[in-house]
Amino acid sequence: MQFESFSPALWFLLWSSFGIALVLGAVVNKTNFCTMGAVSDWVNIGDKGRFRSWMLAIAMALLGVVILEYFGLIDGDGSFPPYRAGELIWAENLLGGLLFGVGMTLASGCANKTLVRLGGGNLKSLLVLLVIAVVAYFMTNPFPGTDQTLFSVLFYDWIRPLAIQTGGSQDLGSLLAAGADPTTARLVIGSVLGLGLLYLVFRNADFRRSGNNILAGVVVGVAVLAAWYVSSNVMINLDDENFSLQGYTQQWDFLSDSREGKPADSRPLAAQSFTFVNPMGQALDYSLAGFNSAWVTFGIMSLFGVVAGSFLWALFSRSFRFEWFASGRDFFNHLAGGALMGVGGVLALGCTVGQGITGVSTLAVGSFIALGGIVLGSALTMKIQYYKLVYEDEASFGAALLSALVDLHLLPARLRRLDAV
User: Fold this and answer.
1) Which pLDDT belongs to residue 253?
2) Which residues contact 235 (CB under 8 A, 6 or more apart)?
3) What gap in Å lies between CA 64 and CA 221, rounded to an integer?
4) Of 96, 192, 225, 338, which has the fewest Cβ atoms less than 10 A away?
5) Alpha-carbon distance 350 to 364, whole Å?
6) Nearest CA-CA partner of 367 in 109, 103, 224, 171
7) Residue 41: CB partners within 8 Å, gap ≥ 6?
8) Which residues sit opposite 364 in a β-bridge?
């Protein structure tokens, strides 16, 4: 995908992001693909159908990325965000994942589901979106009149020293290649993991008969792969020399005659795929900049695309309806959930899609840690909520937490404080 000038190349990338996200939003709405719902179904009723759909999406994206990267068609090393960075921020991945998992449970859905629900008329999701955007923005941008961000105030001094330096890259291929070509190692490891996931997913007869779950997993996985491919291959050809969008922007003063049309930041022009928390913060940045087109990013266009796709499907299926908070408690849960997702999504470098599918497709160790944290945080929250609902005032938070940890086989049974429900 070569272009002779910067502007058409940039807008091709942006509208491609919108188009792929449009399909993603429509299919997620149609099939009720929901990562929070997947954990809920498994934890509460033992139904793994939607969880298998999530795993199918991971398998599709993972297999596609390692194969295309092997042939030089995807750039996973220079991605935004830097999933394979040589500094493994495992504590941030884990804590961020836990906080995000708690938040998405309180808010009735992850960041992607928030956009889908908004497109379907759910106004509760508008509050969640706004809260995530504000919190995510201040996690990476200083408070007015200071040089302190929310991350630097709450986390940096104690959590960043826990990071582990892995050398060049933290992905499984680089760590296990032992000096050999990491691309080949990624192909082997990714193929084994991806095919293993496909086997585990499709060995279940009920899942093989579940058309919506299969459709959702395939489309979500392929959408993530398509975004990786497009963002890795948009090039500008000047005098028979190819420049990536990011490379061109970084050398703008040497390659362009004027500053008109120059993006505000070159980082969001790197190879990337779908993630939704940080782009919500970018969207706030865009609005604060007076909706200047220089601030439009791949991530912002993907937000619009998911909402638009969900809206179109809701109209087509006649399922569009406005929904508001049922009670003050419902409002507070969504407010707190949005705040936790804003903090957790930035801290973990992604959400259920951004780390759980996009990040995992790069085989980054931090992505696997974040994914585990998200699932654990969500499952624990659901268990605690269920115990509090059944036992009402008789159950303290501590008793519900201990019993939930026992249920999830993370503590011995002798520590149980409440009868299993």
Assistant:
1) 85
2) 1, 2, 3, 9, 242, 243, 244
3) 9
4) 192
5) 12
6) 171
7) 47, 48, 49, 50, 51
8) 171
Cα(14)–Cα(88) distance, rounded to whole angstroms?
A: 30
Across the strands, what pairs with 164? 88
Query: How many alpha carbons lie under 13 Å from residue 56 in its C-beta half-sphere?
Result: 25
d(CA 408, CA 406): 5
Token pair of 312, please?
């179109």
Tokens of 418: 């409440």
* Residue 413 exposed, middle or buried by CB count within 10 Å (0-12, 13-18, 19+): exposed
The one-letter amino acid at 418: L
Strand partners, 171: 364
- The Cα–Cα gap between 203 and 178 comes to 34
DSSP code per residue over 278-320: HHHHHHHHHHHTTS-GGG--HHHHHHHHHHHHHHHHHHHTT--
Where b means 16+ CB within 10 Å and e means fewer, 317-348 reads: eeebeeeeeeeeeeeebbbebbbbbbbbbbbb
Q: Return the SS3 of 238.
A: strand
- Phi, psi at 18, each rounded to 5°: -60, -45
- Note whether 298 and 272 are within 8 A (CB): yes
Largest CA distance in the chain: 75
Angle at 230 between CA 358 and CA 3, to 5 degrees: 155
Cβ-based neighbours of 108, under 8 Å, separated by 6 or more: 36, 117, 124, 333, 334, 337
- List, in sequence order, the alpha helices (H) in 292-396: 298-316, 328-347, 365-391
Closest to 41 (Cα-Cα) out of 382, 405, 337: 382
Determine the pLDDT at residue 238: 85
pLDDT digits (tens, 9 = 90+) for 235-287: 999 888 889 999 999 999 888 878 888 999 999 999 999 999 999 999 999 99
pLDDT in tens, 20-67: 999 999 999 999 999 999 999 999 888 999 999 999 999 999 999 999
Distance CA 353, CA 277 (A): 10
